[in-house]
Structure formats: structure tokens, C-alpha cells
């Protein structure tokens, strides 16, 4: 669950969510922020790295096992 965002970066209630966000954005690790008395987790080893994360959506390319044919 997202607690809030800081500088446009989500602050999560669980470590797993923060690590997944980090992985999805080309980062590793996490750091903490306190939000309204609750310890939250943010992806990226520090806030500076999280702010500069590559937030381009990651996509998976599916490849067909069949050879392609062209009809020119």
C-alpha cells in the first residue's frame, strides 16, 4: 500500500513493494522515510538515486518460436 509520494516517488508500507518498485525502475535497495509517525519504505538505496530513477515503463518482449515469414 502506498502511504504517500515524496518528490513523485511512492512511499510504501512494505519493504517488498519498495524493492519491486526499485527493480521496475532500474534500481536496487531501499531507504526509509517517516510519514505521519509510520516508517515507510522507498525503492532505491537513497533518495537521490530514487529521484533520478529511469521511470520509463518496462515491457517484456515476447518472441515467437515460429520463424517469421514475409509476404512481399
Task: Describe the protein's architecture and organization.
- A hairpin with a 2-residue loop joins strand 1 and strand 2.
- This protein has helices spanning 15-24, 47-51; strands spanning 2-6, 9-12, 30-35, 38-43.
- The protein starts with a strand and ends in a 21-residue tail after the last helix.
- The model has no long low-confidence stretch (mean pLDDT 85).
- With 72 residues, it is an alpha+beta fold.
- 21% of the residues lie in helices and 29% in strands.
- The strands form two sheets. Strands 1-2 form a two-stranded antiparallel ribbon.
- The longest helix is centred in the N-terminal third of the chain and has 10 residues, at 15-24.
- The radius of gyration is 17 Å and the shape is globular.
- The protein is built from two helices and four strands.
**Class by alpha and beta content:** alpha+beta
Q: How many DSSP helices? A: 2
Helical proportion, percent range: 10-25%
Q: Hey, roughly how much beta strand do the residues contain? A: 25-35%
Low-confidence stretches: none
How many beta-strand runs? 4
H-E string: EEHEEH
The coarse silhouette is globular
Instruction: Tell me the distance between the termini.
Output: 51 Å
Q: Estimate the mean pLDDT confidence.
A: 85
Main beta sheet: strand number and arrangement?
2 strands, antiparallel
Numbering strands along the chain, what is their spatial order in the largest sheet?
1-2
Radius of gyration: 17 Å
